[in-house]
Amino acid sequence: MTQIAAIVLAAGSSHRFGPGNKLLATVDGKPVLAHVLARIAPLALAKKVVVVKPGDDEVLSLIDATVFDVVENRDAANGMGSSIAVGIAAAGNVDATLLILGDMPFVRQATYLQLLAALDDHPDKTVIAPTCDGRRGHPVLFRRQHFSDLRGLNNDSGAKPIITANESTFLAVPTNDAGTLFDIDVPADATP
Length: 192
Description:
Layout lengths: L3 E7 L15 E2 L2 E2 H9 L6 E6 L4 H4 L8 E4 L7 H12 L4 E6 L7 H13 L5 E6 L2 E2 L3 E4 L3 H5 L8 H6 L4 E5 L18
Parallel strand pairs: 1-4, 1-6, 4-5, 7-10
Antiparallel strand pairs: 2-3, 6-9, 7-8, 7-9
């Protein structure tokens, strides 16, 4: 059976959101990050990792340490790439990782399951992501052969360069899940 780790990226700076942490913004009665974690928790995965900023006690309070491994990104100011690198290192010896943005509370659990199934159904594909209305969304699955490149990231563009460089082994998984395209950037996003 394919061993998969989920890596939830929750160490962002929320610059565009303004004062406060967008992961703590309330959507449908609970924090943004709590929605994401609730959908990941029941998945049958080898490991579930959440990458946080050092000393972010409010975010830490949302994470069930019996379900998720928490790792700190001491270089969080360097951007998403550094959090991906920290998460990949913490994932250990797995066959693939599911990179999940902590500010995307509307991705349906069925979409996560669809991506995991696609990994087994398409062994020749090394990068797998959902699409909705013809647009590529999140989360993104990467097979082990990309881990070295992912560990080398230290920028704010995340894994886009790796996806672009591997279009020949990229699989788009069509969904009707608009949540795969929608992240929380400004306070108005938290109140759709």
